[in-house]
Amino acid sequence: MVFRKKKVSEQIVIDLTGPDGNAYVLLRYANCLANKLNLDYEEIRSEMIASDYENLLEVFDKYFGEYVILER
Questions:
Q1: Contact 60, 70 (CB under 8 A)
Q2: Cα-based distances in Å from 24 to 6, 10, 11
Q3: pLDDT beneath 50, residues of the chain
Q4: Relative to the CA of 55, which of 6, 14, 64, 68 has its CA 20 to 30 Å away?
């Protein structure tokens, strides 16, 4: 997915059962969104990979749940 340089204004829907549900893809989304929102990606990434996949989802939702809907 390509992000524009403007602030995130509408929610993104990610189907976790498809290819976008891959942990590496979610980390890439987190990187793009963190940059847009002026958040520290390295801190978020460290928290996301500190445990299992469920933790990764919880941390992603904690930081980006306002902008992204994670669907199972």
A1: yes
A2: 24, 23, 20
A3: 1-6
A4: 6
What's the confidence (pLDDT) of residue 6? Answer: 47
Residues found in the chain: 72
Pair type for strands 68-71 and 12-15 = parallel
Give CA–CA dist 23/55, Å, rounded. Answer: 11
3-state secondary structure of 72: coil
Short-list 67, 34, 66, CA closest to 48: 34
Which H or E element spans position 68?
Answer: strand 68-71
Q: What does the longest C-alpha to C-alpha distance in the chain come to?
A: 32
> What sign for the dihedral angle of Cα 11, 16, 17, 22?
positive
